[in-house]
Amino acid sequence: MQKKILQVILFITSLIFLSCTNTPSPEKESKSTPQVSPTSINKQGEESLAQKEEQAANSQIPEKLDQLASDSEWTVRANVAANPSTASETLTKFLQDIPEVQVNVAANPNTSKEVLEIMQKHPNPQISKRAKANLLSEP
């Protein structure tokens, strides 16, 4: 139950962060891309964006989360980064990702101390604050 509450809190705070940030989100940068319904499955039979986002947010299988961590959609990667079942090694992959993903890495309880120490010096205050708070909450 606590894990689910943490996921919801992380997701909501990342949405708040997105609405407060001055950097354009990847959605705004891809205006030339035609919009496809997130619930549809493409012609190759691949999973829809909504399905991948749901798996990234709720999967408890580290191997699946590691696979989703390479997804081209930033929203999928952000959900992987927020998922408390994501392995520390997978979270390390997001160090060079966009801020909308990094902010969730900084708050994830599985993020390694080494990564958090790097992130607490991040120029984005949302990321650095979350990393510092996460470091302080470690036993």
Oligomerization: single chain
Q: Report the total helices.
A: 9
Provide the helix percentage: 55-70%
| SSE class | mainly alpha
**Low-confidence segments, ≥5 residues, pLDDT <50?**
17-40
Average residue pLDDT:
80
The succession of helices and strands, N to C, reads: HHHHHHHHH
Count of beta strands: 0
Describe the protein's topology.
Layout lengths: L1 H19 L5 H4 L19 H10 L3 H7 L5 H9 L5 H5 L6 H9 L5 H7 L5 H13 L2
Helix pairs in contact: 1-7, 3-5, 5-7, 7-9, 8-9
Describe the structure.
Helix 1 runs antiparallel to helix 7, helix 3 packs parallel to helix 5 (74-82) and helix 7 runs parallel beside helix 9. The protein has one domain. The radius of gyration is 15 Å and the shape is globular. Residues 17-40 have low confidence and may be disordered. The protein is mainly α and 139 residues long. It contains 9 helices and no strands.
Could you give a short description of this structure?
This protein has 139 residues and is mainly alpha-helical. The chain is 60% helix and 0% strand.
What would the keywords be for this entry?
single chain, 139 residues, mainly alpha, 9 helices, 0% strand, globular
